[in-house]
Amino acid sequence: xxxxxxxxxxxxxxxxxxADLLLSIGLPPLQLGGSLSPKTPVKIRDVLxxxxxxxxxFPDTTVSKLAFDxxxxxxxxxxxxxxxxxxxxxxxxxxxVDVNIAKTSDATTASMNADLTLADIDxxxxxxxxxxWQISGSTAYGQPLAIGKLINDLTQQFNVTCPxxxxxxxLQNLAVSLDTGASKFTFACEGSFPIAGTELDxx
Length: 203
Description:
Mean pLDDT: 86
Helix content: 10-25%
Shape: flat
């Protein structure tokens, strides 16, 4: 059989910032695909300003990856989205998010990875879907999480108060996982806590 494909670039401009959409069509069977050129990431603020005239305080989120592909005859498709500088609120910042979804005639799968910062602590979050969600999150190994600093940040931002003793709690190697298909949940951490002048370590 004769195979054929056509590729094209569609140039866009959002708030005077260029963005190139790369399109492809293949035969047989009919296959459609497209992606945002990695050379022209798009700030969502620019899109809002282009079409609404104002970003309305929207964060400086950048779409760094956008791609899709589908074979209609097979009922299959895939979608990928990557974003940076997603949002920031007080001591919490969502720095990066990657989402991938794929469907075939047999199954639908999905995955998500995200990097967060909470009171200067880096947290990695991952999720995957295959007949249920598997979700996990953890801090970097050996990186201390000073509850006192976190409480101080929250106090300044949201008027939260906390007993002084808890503010001296320090955690590290925090890890959480959830499997919705198997109804399993795990939580693990290490830390230290002062009691009557003595430092108590726990895990």
